[in-house]
Amino acid sequence: MMIHEVTPKAGRYRARKRIGRGPGSGHGKTSGRGTKGGGSRSGYSRKRAFEGGQSPLYRRFPKRGFSNFAFRTEYAVVNIGVMDTHFQDGAQITPADLIRVGLIPNDLLPVKVLATGETTKKFNVTAAAFSKAAQEKITKAGGSATVAS
Questions:
Q1: Distance CA 22, CA 131 (A)
Q2: Which domains does the chain have, with CATH numbers?
Q3: Using CA atoms in the order 132, 138, 144, 147, what is the torsion angle rounded to 10 degrees?
Q4: What's the average pLDDT block by block, 10 residues per block, for the chain (149 residues)?
Q5: Beta strands in 51-95 (DSSP E)
Q6: Is the pTM for the entire model greater than 0.85?
């Protein structure tokens, strides 16, 4: 087999849509914009929440009350059952170990251990937070749950 005989997979690459190139292209005349209306005009942008000149919903509603969105703490979450499958009995588990095994992607977020799943192994887990049930399951199995500051 020679290099010139190797061809790309059929259908792998799709041809670019060439608009405004006459009626034979299937995208001539109005170039896929339709007739009349804002979408057919130059300079039109389909902005989020734009309601055709009507005052949008988010501006009609009064802004009152408190939202915790900006102040909440996000965690990288790990379940006990998943740790049970990835670590040996008596293991010292830190966020670095969880990254190494692939249970969390990186150390940008603090780690929280949740109680989904079961474990019979003794783990010495160090994390930023634990759910009460997770802490109970770890100590019940003979391990320790240490909150890292």
A1: 65
A2: 18-65 (no CATH), 76-147 (3.100.10.10)
A3: -30
A4: 79 87 92 90 84 87 91 95 93 95 94 94 95 95 91
A5: 76-79, 92-93
A6: no
